[in-house]
Amino acid sequence: MAFEKEIAHSLYSAYEVYLDLKAQLHDVQQLRTQQLQEALSRIPEPVLEETDKGKGGHEHADHDVDHAVGKKKPIPTIEDHEQQIHRDLDELAKKIENLVQSLTQNHTTAPTMLGEFENLRTFKIMSGEKFALNSVLPLKPNR
Question: Cα 84 to chain center, whole Å?
Answer without folding.
Answer: 9
